[in-house]
Amino acid sequence: MTRPPAMFIADSLGLDFLNSVATPVDTPVDWLDDGDGLIDWLAQARLVPADALEALKMRAKPGELDEVADEARALREWFRAFVRRHAGRRLAVDALRELGPLNSLLERDEVFGRIAAASDDGDHVLALRATRRWRSPGSLLLPIGEALAKFVCVEDFADVKACEGHNCTMLFADHTRRRARRWCTMAICGNRAKQAAHRSRLKNRQ
């Protein structure tokens, strides 16, 4: 299946993961509908190094990546339900009781520190980098879990909104100054709303 490029419009990688199934232009697209789709989405999200993706793809047994994609979709829908329950208000500490599945995923991680060349032009030429062991295709879920955990711990759930576009399912974090964002993107749903309003005004004048 030929998929359009994945959409990263949420201003939060955790919400972009939820938006990995959407209807950007009339036709529903699930970027995680199989193992190849998951690999492609992770590459576009820059969550896994390209060499690690290639190595895991080469080592995977038939159907193994598809099974991991199944797990990713299940994780996505579990997290979508969590976000929808809490969106629009600040997250309370009681929400921790609901986060067992995410903590269980995080416990599988194998991250270690490694000294590497610094990527900026600052005073230091070396930096301590977190590095992950990519032992199996299942490890592809780990950076997703980390992104979801960061979202839960850092994002103000009062800023989480659903796009107001007709039939649009996309979520985003509204970081605008007046918290006035209404659309996933102006190019898609914002434009459609403007066109619909224009048609309505013309009809009322007739």
Q: Which properties best describe this structure?
A:
6 strands, alpha+beta, two-stranded antiparallel ribbon, 44% helix, globular, two-stranded antiparallel sheet, 7 helices, 206 residues
Architecture overview:
With 206 residues, the protein is of the alpha+beta class. 44% of the residues lie in helices and 14% in strands. It contains 7 helices and 6 strands, in the order αββααααββαββα. The protein has helices at residues 13-18, 35-45, 50-59, 64-86, 100-106, 141-154, 186-205, and strands at residues 21-25, 27-30, 111-117, 126-132, 160-162, 171-173. The chain has a two-stranded antiparallel ribbon with strand order 1-2. Strand 3 (111-117) and strand 4 form a beta hairpin. The termini are far apart. The mean pLDDT is 91.
Report the principal-axis shape: globular
Radius of gyration (CA) equals 20 Å
Low-confidence stretches: none
Strand order of the largest sheet: 1-2
Terminal Cα span:
45 Å
What helical percentage do the residues reach? 40-55%
- Secondary-structure element sequence? HEEHHHHEEHEEH
Class per helix and strand makeup:
alpha+beta
The helix count comes to: 7
The largest sheet, given as strand count, sense and whether it forms a barrel, is: 2 strands, antiparallel
Mean pLDDT over all positions: 91
- What fraction of residues sit in β-strands? 5-15%
Total strand segments: 6
